[in-house]
Design brief:
- The strands form five sheets. An eight-stranded antiparallel β-sheet has the order 16-12-14-13-19-20-18-21.
- The two termini are 25 Å apart.
- It is 27% helix and 24% strand.
- It is α+β, with helices and mostly antiparallel strands.
- α10 packs antiparallel against α11.
Length: 468
């Protein structure tokens, strides 16, 4: 039996922090040994820990449970076909490594979240989306197939044709169906490491939504930064950033010489947890006003930027989550359907403005149709994402109010960023919960795969339920 170490783990939001028994297997047979144990443990996979809440936590308590399987040694590149641009790799391979190895070969990740420090398996489990979801869908749209190690020790090949029910339960299934061993991903051909981005300042939410509805489909990538402290006629004032990968022919002469080279930047770091008073409504309001005035150069413009600057601005600041202090923060991301998204977004933003909560990392995007993932987050409409400092019960009460608004408008909250939603609220947001439970019961009849999120939302049994 592989050895474990008892560690206190947290997601990127640093809330909650829980004791877990952590394993670092180097081979598939070691994972099988864990699953074949008879000590009543449950297990959940963990990549680089960039989900925000308790999705990759599995609390160790008096009743057992507690197993967390790290994939940092299960990260081998298996194959790449330059004719089809199909990459095959183990689940622990990071997007950072994929980009380092393959960008110079003229391919890029077809979908990427706001950090490259995520693993292939974690991206599948969360069905991550990016700034191109409105046109290209989430990562599930580009997964050809994957191999899943189930509770019985069997390796299932899952695709749209082979074990399709397990395929769609695993994409967005938060790791609760089994251990993803490897996957095949269709990569995106690109001519350079640069993007041509249009920056547009918009006075309020109505202006933003009107602009998105008019021509968002013209752009592969689209995202809007929103000032969540601006109210009244300026409610939802924003900077809209849209564009696509830049062809070599459109690059300046100096960049055409080496279109895949990007400037080397010195990384900043937050070496310690900042005091709570640093991020307060006044400081964030000042930051937002400055960003709105200067981020687009004082007006609308078009610029050629490297992929790192556009996709991963926060990756340049190591441990940026420490800015929120030792209590951490909660990221809240909601999706609303098109018929009610305008009204719902107005209510959400008005509630935030009234609460005077400081979120300087607030973004809004258009969503295209979702996929068949039973627990996948994206749905046609719009999505709003917020970072809010953890102030305990006061914040949780506000988030409960935001949940009610989202439910009333037929929306849902992203599981990869949730840390406190109730089971009742979750079931109101996700209509395929029962269907997911049926697939999980088929591939994991004894509830071997569990997590703190899974138990909180009723998706996985606790230790006492397993033993009973």
């Amino acid at each position: 039996m592989p050895r474990s170490v008892l560690q206190h783990l947290a997601g990127w939001g640093l809330y909650p922090t829980e004791p877990c028994r952590v394993y670092r297997p180097a081979k598939l047979r070691e994972v099988r040994q864990l699953l074949n144990g008879c000590d009543g443990s449950t297990y959940i996979s963990r990549g680089l820990g960039r989900s925000y809440g308790d999705a990759a936590l599995n609390r160790q308590d008096a009743c057992g449970g507690g197993g967390v399987i790290l994939h940092d040694q299960l990260d081998r590149l298996i194959a790449f076909d330059p004719q089809t641009n199909v990459l095959e790799a183990e689940a622990g391979l990071s997007f950072d490594t994929i980009i380092d190895v393959f960008l110079r070969r003229g391919v890029f990740c077809p979908v990427t979240p706001g950090t490259k420090y995520v693993t292939l398996g974690g991206a599948i489990a969360a069905d991550v989306h990016g700034k191109n979801q409105h046109r290209d869908g989430s990562i599930g749209s580009f997964i050809i197939d994957f191999e899943l190690l189930t509770a019985s020790g069997e390796v299932l090949t899952c695709s749209r044709r082979q074990n399709p029910d397990v395929f769609w339960a695993t994409i967005g299934g938060m790791g609760l169906t089994g251990v993803i061993r490897s996957a095949r991903l269709r990569m995106l051909p690109v001519e350079s490491a640069y993007l041509t981005i249009e920056y547009r300042r918009l006075a309020n939410l109505d202006d933003l939504l009107d602009r998105l509805s008019e021509d968002d489909d013209r752009y592969r990538y689209s995202v809007a930064w929103i000032d969540c402290l601006a109210g009244g006629k300026s409610l939802g004032r924003s900077i809209l950033m849209r564009g696509d990968h830049t062809p070599v022919a459109d690059l300046s002469a100096d960049l055409r010489n080496d279109p895949f080279a990007v400037p080397t930047r010195r990384k900043l770091a937050v070496p310690f947890f900042l005091p709570r008073f640093v991020l307060n409504p006044l400081s964030v309001k000042a930051f937002n006003a400055l960003y709105y005035a200067r981020a687009s150069g004082g007006g609308d413009k078009t610029a050629v930027v490297d992929y790192d600057s556009f996709f991963y601005p926060l990756d340049s600041i190591m441990n940026w989550n420490r800015m929120y202090g030792k209590r951490g923060f909660l990221q809240y991301q909601a999706a609303l359907p098109p018929q009610s998204s305008r009204a719902g977004l107005i209510q959400l933003l008005e509630k935030l403005v009234a609460s005077k909560r400081a979120s300087f990392l607030a973004v809004l995007k258009t969503f295209g149709p979702g996929n068949d993932g039973l627990l996948s987050f994206p749905m046609a409409g719009h999505t709003l994402s917020l970072d809010l400092a953890n102030t305990g019960g006061e914040l949780f009460g506000l988030l409960d109010e935001l949940d009610r608004i989202v439910v009333e408008h037929g929306g849902r909250v992203y599981l990869a960023k949730d840390a406190r939603m109730t089971r009742q609220t979750f079931e109101a947001m996700y209509p395929n919960t029962d269907a997911f439970g049926q697939v999980k019961s088929k591939v994991d009849p004894n509830g071997l795969f569990s997590s703190s999120l899974g138990r909180r939302l009723g998706l996985a049994p606790g230790p006492m339920e397993r033993s009973g």
